[in-house]
Design brief:
Helices cover 88% and strands 0% of the residues. By secondary structure, it is mainly α. The longest helix is centred in the N-terminal third of the chain and has 38 residues.
Length: 154
């Protein structure tokens, strides 16, 4: 009986430690994702630049990133309003007392903010893509297709 208990403990302790590390990583991932959302849309743009750096050859990534960074002051106000609108929509849908009309208005504001951001950012995006090789643009398009296939939360 003592040998059975000893072998059980030899398995249970490492399994418990591994499971606890997994839970810490899982919870940390959710906290980090939520924190990224709070920081704002700049984090996804930074993420997009990081993905471009990872996807593109060094020369393409540098040229693409230079245009995006150069024009950041031009679209940063629209970007900030987009973040605020998304945050307000999230606040509305997670409130204890759900207000359908308030949620509709917040969603409409988010949609309008997205439109303004897209209008302000579109020319920069096209100019940045013009600096990328045809193969690089194909890689970016393939990467974007993969990302769009993954489900995401609001």
């Amino acid at each position: 009986m003592i040998n059975q208990m000893s072998s059980w403990r030899k398995i249970a302790l490492p399994a418990s430690i591994v499971f606890n590390f997994f839970l810490v990583a899982l919870i940390g991932g959710f906290v980090w994702r939520d924190r990224t959302d709070e920081v704002g849309f700049g984090a996804p743009l930074t993420g997009a630049l990081a993905k471009a750096d990872a996807t593109l050859e060094a020369q393409d990534a540098a040229a693409f990133g230079a245009i995006i960074r150069r024009d950041a002051p031009r679209y940063s106000g629209a970007q900030r309003r987009l973040v605020e609108a998304r945050r307000e929509f999230r606040r509305r849908i997670t409130a204890d007392e759900f207000d359908p009309e308030g949620a509709r208005q917040a969603l409409a504001n988010w949609r309008a903010a997205w439109g303004r951001f897209f209008d302000d950012f579109s020319e920069t995006l096209v100019e940045a893509l013009a600096q990328v090789s045809p193969e690089g643009r194909r890689k970016l398009a393939a990467e974007r297709k993969l990302l769009r296939a993954k489900p995401s939360l609001p």
